[in-house]
Design a protein that fits this description.
about 425 residues
C-alpha cells in the first residue's frame, strides 16, 4: 500500500495552521487587555503601555492576514503540483539558452531562479507594508524606499554569487555519496557553517551596515573591564548603525576562540542613558558565553542536521514519495524539498524543544549577570528595552510557551526578584 504522502503533508500543514491560529487568537486577546500586568504597573508608564499595546495589535492583525495568504499559497502549490510544473518550465528555460538539459546542476539553478523570483514577488507587498506602514506608524522604520530596495538587490546579488557553488556541491555529494551520504552532507554543511560564521561579520554584514569602533570613554572602559574579569578574549568592540533602518535595539557577540568581538547597536546606546544598563545587558550576553550556551546550541543543531541528512538518505530513492508530489524523476533538490515537508511534524516538536532550552538559558544568563552584581541595572535595562521596543506587555501563557525563545519580561523580573529574596533569607 502506497502512503498518500502529499495528502498527509497538506493535512498536517492545515492542522498546524489551525492550531497556531488558535494560539494567535489567545495572544490577540491578551494584547487587548486594557491594563498592565501587576508586576509591571510600577515600572512601566501608562503611555508606553498604550503605545506597546497598539503596536502589538497592529502586528497581530498583520500576522493574521499574512498567515492566511501563506497557508493558501503553500497548500495550493503542493496540492496542485505547481512544483513539478516549475521544474518542467525550468528545463525549458535551460534548453532555450542552449544549455545541457541533462546537467542536473544547471537545471536545478534554473529551478531555484524561478523559485527566488516567485518568492520575491509574493513577499514584497508584505515586506513593504510591514516596513513602511506598520513599523513606520509606530516610529520604528528609519529606512528610505531606496535603502529598502538596495538591501533586496544586495541580497539577490549575494545569492547569485554564493548559491551556485553551494548547490553544485550538494548535488555532487548526493550523487557520489553512496552509503556515507549523510556523513558527507553533514561534513560539508558543518564546514560551510564555520566559513559563513567567519566571513559574514567581516565581508557580508558590512555590505548592509556600517561598523565603527566604540569611541574611547567610560562605556568602553567598563565593557573592557567586565570582559577582562571574565577572561573573555575581546579583540574588537563595534557600534553598528542600526538606526539607519530601525529604532529597535540589540547587542551581540561573535568570533572564534581568542578572537571575540562585541557589537552594540547605536539605538541601544541611545536608549540606555545609564551606561551601567548597557554593561548589565552585556553581562547577560557574556553569561551565555561563560556558561557555554552558544556551544551547546551549536552542537545540538549539528546533531539535528546530521539526523535530518540521515533521514533524507533513507528516503531519497523512494519512487513513491516523489510520485506522490507529482515528480516522475528524482532530482536532488526536489528530494530535499519534499523531505523537509514530510518531517514538518518533527520540526515543530524540535522547535518547541529548542525554545524550552533557549528560555532556560536566558534565565541562567540573567542569574549569571546577577551574580556579577548587575541585578538592579539589568532589571532597569530589561524594562527600558521592553518599553523602547514596544514589546508586548501582556502575553498568553500558551502562546509564549510555544513561540517564545526568550521568557516574557514579567517572568524574567520575577526570577531576578526571587533570587534576591532567597539571598536575603
Amino acid at each position: 500500500m502506497v502512503l498518500p504522502y502529499l495528502e498527509l503533508v497538506v493535512g498536517f500543514m492545515i492542522f498546524m495552521y489551525i492550531f497556531e491560529t488558535y494560539l494567535d487568537l489567545r495572544q490577540h486577546s491578551a494584547l487587548k487587555l486594557p491594563n498592565l500586568p501587576k508586576p509591571l504597573e510600577v515600572v512601566v508608564s501608562q503611555e508606553k503601555f498604550e503605545r506597546s499595546r497598539a503596536y502589538s495589535l497592529d502586528k497581530s492583525r498583520f500576522h493574521f492576514v499574512h498567515g492566511v495568504v501563506t497557508i493558501l499559497m503553500d497548500t495550493t502549490i503542493l496540492y496542485y503540483r505547481v512544483l513539478p510544473w516549475v521544474w518542467m518550465k525550468s528545463e525549458e528555460l535551460v534548453a532555450y539558452f542552449g544549455l545541457n538539459v541533462e546537467n542536473e546542476i544547471i537545471h536545478t539553478l534554473s529551478f531555484l531562479a524561478f523559485v527566488m523570483i516567485w518568492s520575491q514577488i509574493i513577499d514584497l507587498p508584505f515586506s513593504l507594508y510591514s516596513t513602511f506602514v506598520v513599523e513606520a506608524r509606530h516610529g520604528f522604520n528609519k529606512q528610505t524606499v531606496w535603502l529598502f530596495f538596495r538591501d533586496i538587490i544586495k541580497g539577490i546579488f549575494l545569492s547569485i554569487i554564493l548559491g551556485p557553488p553551494i548547490v553544485a556541491a550538494i548535488i555532487y555529494i548526493v550523487q557520489k555519496g553512496g552509503p556515507y551520504l549523510a556523513i558527507y552532507l553533514w561534513g560539508f554543511m558543518f564546514v560551510l557553517s564555520i566559513v559563513m560564521m567567519t566571513i559574514y561579520p567581516v565581508l557580508i554584514a558590512p555590505l548592509f551596515n556600517k561598523f565603527t569602533p566604540l569611541p574611547e570613554g567610560e562605556l568602553r572602559e567598563k565593557i573592557e573591564k567586565l570582559a577582562a574579569s571574565l577572561k573573555f578574549p575581546l579583540k574588537k568592540l563595534f557600534v553598528v548603525d542600526g538606526s539607519t533602518r530601525s529604532s529597535h535595539s540589540n547587542a551581540y557577540m561573535y568570533g572564534f576562540f581568542k578572537n571575540k568581538r562585541i557589537v552594540l547597536y547605536d539605538t541601544l546606546i541611545q536608549q540606555c542613558s545609564d551606561e551601567e544598563e548597557i554593561v548589565a545587558v552585556l553581562a547577560h550576553e557574556l553569561g551565555h558565553w561563560k556558561l557555554n550556551h552558544t556551544l551547546y546550541t551549536f552542537i545540538a543543531l549539528q546533531m539535528l542536521t546530521f539526523l535530518q541528512f540521515g533521514g533524507y538518505a533513507l528516503v531519497r530513492n523512494s519512487k513513491d514519495l516523489f510520485e506522490s508530489f507529482g515528480f516522475d524523476t528524482q532530482p536532488v533538490i526536489i528530494g530535499l524539498i519534499i523531505f523537509q515537508h514530510t518531517i514538518i511534524p518533527v520540526q515543530h516538536l524540535v522547535s518547541f524543544g529548542l525554545n524550552l532550552v533557549s528560555r532556560a538559558f536566558e534565565f541562567q544568563a540573567d542569574a549569571f549577570a546577577k551574580k556579577l552584581g548587575y541585578t538592579s541595572t539589568l532589571k532597569a535595562a530589561l524594562v527600558k528595552l521592553q518599553e523602547e521596543n514596544l514589546s508586548a506587555m501582556n502575553t498568553d501563557s500558551w502562546y509564549s510557551a510555544y513561540h517564545y525563545s526568550h521568557p516574557p519580561l514579567v517572568e524574567r523580573l520575577a526570577a531576578l526578584q526571587d533570587s534576591d529574596t532567597k539571598k536575603e533569607n
